[in-house]
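Narrative of accomplishments. A recurring question from our advisory board has been how the design workflow behaves on a single, concrete structure rather than in aggregate. To address it, we present the structure tokens for one chain from the evaluation set, followed by the sequence designed for it. No filtering or post-editing was applied between the two.
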């Protein structure tokens, strides 16, 4: 579905990095715009994407910032994926998803928590 050497690893406080892949490195025929959206105070309005392969669909498995706020412009032509739904790796290392249903960070073997999304972390 996607393979890149041009991802942006975006790090936020108490989060493992979210990896934003250039859309040019993603099989665009598998992405379908999903309903809904959200707003990040640092990156701007987010758009969500479904991953569709024939009759199979993973809803809102990815997000993007097509019109990012100043300072986040490199993300304009990128998309990030929730690792909990996919088989993801970074540099050959298997990725574990960040805890919680909302967060999209990728935990690689070299990272140690605690991470936002774990029980009791909503007020960090």
């Amino acid at each position: 579905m996607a393979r890149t050497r041009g991802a942006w690893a975006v790090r936020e406080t108490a989060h493992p990095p979210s990896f934003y892949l250039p859309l040019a490195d993603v099989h665009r025929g598998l992405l379908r715009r999903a309903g809904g959206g959200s707003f990040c105070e640092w990156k701007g309005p987010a758009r969500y994407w479904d991953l569709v392969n024939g009759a199979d669909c993973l809803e809102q498995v990815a997000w993007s910032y097509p019109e990012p706020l100043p300072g986040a412009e490199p993300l304009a032509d990128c998309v990030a994926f929730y690792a909990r739904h996919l088989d993801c790796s970074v540099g050959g290392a298997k990725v574990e998803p960040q805890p919680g249903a909302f967060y999209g960070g990728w935990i690689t073997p070299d990272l140690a928590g605690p991470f936002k999304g774990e029980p009791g972390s909503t007020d960090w």
